[in-house]
Amino acid sequence: EVQLVESGGGLVQPGGSLRLSCAASGFTFSSSYMSWFRQAPGKERERVASIHSFGSTTYSDSVKGRFTISRYNAKNTLYLQMNSLKVEDTAIYYCAADPGGSGIWHNYWGQGTQVTVSS
Prior knowledge:
Layout: E1 3-7, E2 10-12, E3 18-25, E4 33-39, E5 46-51, E6 57-59, E7 67-72, E8 77-82, E9 91-98, E10 108-109, E11 113-117
Parallel strand pairs: 2-11
Antiparallel strand pairs: 1-3, 3-8, 4-5, 4-9, 5-6, 7-8, 9-10, 9-11
């Protein structure tokens, strides 16, 4: 059974930090292209960050310089370190995987974890 389980969301003040985790199982994580997406009420789903199997990363302009995506293949875990958080970062964050490695289409999705940035 394929599973992607996000954790680490919560309430944080503007300027604060949070680290999200995604535990993967049921597929070959180490060779998969992995991404974090987010969606806020009334807004389109946005790809926040991605990481290739070999470690290359990409970020949306809105989070570049503040967020860092990483992976630990030995634990089948994906991370998103979020620093200097803004109110605009409030959203449900989803972990997604492309086992084919292209990153164009994500076959597997997690259930999401809520991140709320508020003073």
